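User: Is it possible to get a 3D structure for a protein together with its bound compound? The compound here is S-adenosylmethionine. I've pasted both below.
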Amino acid sequence: MNKASKRIAGRTARAVAEPAVCPLPRMQISTDFWASKTLAAAHDLDIFTHIADAGRATAESLARALRVALRPAEMLLTGCASLGLLERRGDRYANSAVADAFLVRGRPYYFDGGIEMLDRRLYPWWGNLTGAIHANRPTTWDPDRQGSLFEGEGPVMLAVFWEAMHSLSTFTARVLGEAVDLSSYRRLRDVGGGSAAYDVELYRRYPQLTATVYDLPFVEDIAARKIADAGLSGRIQTVAGDFFADASLPAGHDVILLSMILHDWREERCREILRKCYAALPGGGALIVSELLVNDEKTGPAPAALMSLHILIETEGRNYASPEYGGGCARPASSTRTRCGSTRRVRTGRSSHARPDAPRVRRSARSARSGAGHRAPGASADGTHAR
Ligand SMILES: C[S@@+](CC[C@H](N)C(=O)[O-])C[C@H]1O[C@@H](n2cnc3c(N)ncnc32)[C@H](O)[C@@H]1O
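Assistant: Yes, that's possible. Here is the predicted structure of the complex:
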């Protein structure tokens, strides 16, 4: 090294102080996609079904079955084991409980649609998140040619989107059924109800409920199929509708559900949907909004904050904070639930144009006026508690 370069090296060493924090969390964030792609590859190769059929697999037997070399077969098995998807017993690998329940073809809760949608449909678009931030408009479809994500009922969309929603919503619906007591309601309208996952699960918990899924015409068949599969065609109906094009929502229901709807739309459109829901409810009726809410400080939680960026590439909306839904309808109570590592906040509000003689309604309207939306986390106006 000559004198000049020594001087430069010396200056650099003095100028750059070593960071006081460890780089591992940053590294973890940067490499999180390795885990998601490992799962996607294992799912593509259907190794969990293979292992379930065979009982267990060695690296050699899997390599033979997949017709791949031993080296990548062993690496994939090790990768899946490191993620808790496989368990090693002796020289063999078996599915973990999670893999066995959700990743084996033909199982009732096979998570096929979710993995397909995230990996095949969305992963490439997430590769251009920076572009979506610059564009401030959806990038997964062309807003100059389509009115919304949901007008793109192409075969890929039809095949995977609602299937993916179904696999997720089935579990959220169970949590909702525990968080919100629906035992005093009789008729549920699931606005934008998609595959009817909520209606099926809520009926199982509250058999006094009948439900109607209200969604775009081409979604009706998807919902009807799932309802028939659940053997509930007599209890759950479907009706085609469009919450923007229809002047009002059909009346005759005492509880309305909006699950993963409002985050798809910009604020004035959310207000339009909320107004129509509110107008369709009778006195004492309830509106339930179920989605991932960003906290009031807008610092997280990560599932909601990252979902919001996902919404950036997919729609005109964003994941809102609870106070942003204030106004336009009765002030809601809120409760927070955590399950399976994600937090989804469930908000319930009773219609405040309720008959004044209905005590339950009066109580709710009072708590609404006194700011029930800011009560302690976990407690709601109707006394339901959440974990
Ligand atoms: C993110 S999915 C949520 C599905 C379901 N609520 C769930 O949580 O599983 C949004 C749903 O809104 C429906 N939707 C979109 N635009 C709509 C409109 N204008 N009128 C009625 N439904 C609509 C879509 O077809 C889709 O099923």
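The chain is about 45% helix and 15% strand. Strands lie at 86-89, 92-95, 187-191, 210-215, 236-240, 255-259, 286-291, 333-339, 342-350.
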